[in-house]
Design a protein that fits this description.
Number of helices: 6
Protein name: TonB protein C-terminal
Number of strands: 16
Keywords: Signal
Shape: elongated
Largest sheet: 5 strands, antiparallel
C-alpha cells in the first residue's frame, strides 16, 4: 500500500478592499500580534535547513519551508494513515494556519474549518510536536530589520492508494437513483457492464429490464420527467451505513465529482466532494452504491 503526503505551502493573504498592488504601501504596526503577509515584510523567515538560500530570495525560501515541513509532517502524521484505513477512507484534506513569530517559534496553530476534522486535530498536534523540537527559525523582518510575526496557511492532503472494493460481495453498482412519490428507481451496472433498472416500492425490489445506455433510460418515461423535475441534479445513491443516512449526488459544479451529504434531522449536510474515480477508496461510500 503506497502512502502519500501531498501539500502546498501558501502565505496567508489578508483581504483588503484596495488594489492588490498597493498592499505593500499599507502602514504596518510592528507590535501587531496578528502577523504580516510575505508582501508586507522585507525579509522572509528562514527555516532550519534553508540557511544557504539568499535572504532576499522569497520564492525559494518558501519552497524550502514547504520541503522541510513536508519531511517533518510525513513522520509526525504517520500514525494517522492507520486511522484512515481503519475508518475506511483513503483521502483526507485539512488546512492549518500558524504563525512564525518574531522570536522564531511556530505559534497560534489552528486547524481551519471546512475540511477533515480528524486530520485537522492530528495536524495541530503534529505542529505542536514539531514546534517543541525545532531549532529556532530566523524570523521574518521589515526592511529596517525589525522582526515581525509571519502568518501562513498550509493545506495538507493525505492519500492512501488503496481500494476497499475487495471487502464487499456485490453484483451491481448503482449509477443513478430517481425518486417518484413513494417509488424509487435505481439504475445499476453489473460487472459485465449491463445497465439495468429496478423499481423499489415499500422495500420490495422489482427488475424492470435492461437498457443499452443511460441515455436510453433518460429519454424514456417516467425517468425523463423525473430528471427534468429535478433540474438535472442526479442522485447517485442513498443508504444508511453505520446509522448515518448518506446521499451521494453527481456534482453540478465539479466535473467528474460526487458531492457527499449526510442527513441530520431531515436536513442534508454537506460532508465533502470526491472524484468519481476515488470512490473505491471510501468504505462507507462504497457501501452506499454497491448492491448484492
Amino acid at each position: 500500500m503506497k502512502k502519500q503526503l501531498l501539500f502546498a505551502l501558501t502565505l496567508f493573504q489578508i483581504s483588503f478592499l484596495i488594489a492588490q498592488e498597493s498592499l505593500d504601501k499599507l502602514p504596518v504596526d510592528v507590535n501587531s500580534e496578528e502577523g504580516f503577509t510575505v508582501r508586507q515584510v522585507g525579509y522572509m523567515a528562514i527555516f532550519p535547513g534553508c540557511e544557504s538560500i539568499d535572504e532576499n530570495d522569497k520564492i525559494n525560501l518558501q519552497k524550502c519551508v514547504s520541503k522541510e515541513l513536508s519531511a517533518l509532517l510525513t513522520k509526525e502524521l504517520k500514525p494517522f494513515y492507520g486511522q484512515m484505513e481503519k475508518d475506511g477512507y483513503s483521502r483526507a484534506v485539512a488546512k492549518v494556519q500558524f504563525v512564525i513569530d518574531k522570536n522564531g517559534k511556530i505559534v497560534q496553530i489552528e486547524a481551519l474549518k471546512g475540511a477533515n476534522e480528524d486530520l485537522g486535530i492530528a495536524s495541530e498536534m503534529a505542529f505542536e510536536r514539531i514546534s517543541s523540537k525545532l531549532k529556532k527559525i530566523k524570523p521574518a523582518a521589515l526592511k529596517d530589520g525589525t522582526p515581525v510575526n509571519l502568518v501562513f496557511q498550509l493545506p495538507i492532503r493525505l492519500q492512501l492508494e488503496v481500494s476497499f472494493l475487495h471487502e464487499f460481495q456485490w453484483k451491481e453498482m448503482t449509477i443513478a437513483t430517481l425518486k417518484e412519490e413513494n417509488k424509487i428507481y435505481e439504475i445499476r451496472q453489473d460487472k459485465s457492464k449491463n445497465i439495468k433498472v429496478y423499481e423499489i416500492l415499500n422495500g420490495k425490489e422489482t427488475f424492470l429490464g435492461k437498457f443499452l445506455s443511460t441515455q436510453e433510460i433518460f429519454n424514456s418515461e417516467p425517468y425523463k420527467s423525473i430528471l427534468i423535475r429535478d433540474n438535472q441534479h442526479i442522485l447517485l445513491a442513498e443508504k444508511t451505513v453505520k446509522k448515518i443516512l448518506y446521499r451521494l449526488y453527481y456534482s453540478t459544479e465539479k466535473p467528474n465529482s460526487i458531492d457527499i451529504f449526510k442527513v441530520v434531522d431531515g436536513e442534508e449536510v454537506w460532508i465533502e466532494s470526491i472524484l468519481q474515480s476515488e470512490i473505491e477508496g471510501y468504505r462507507n461510500y462504497l457501501a452506499v452504491v454497491l448492491r448484492n
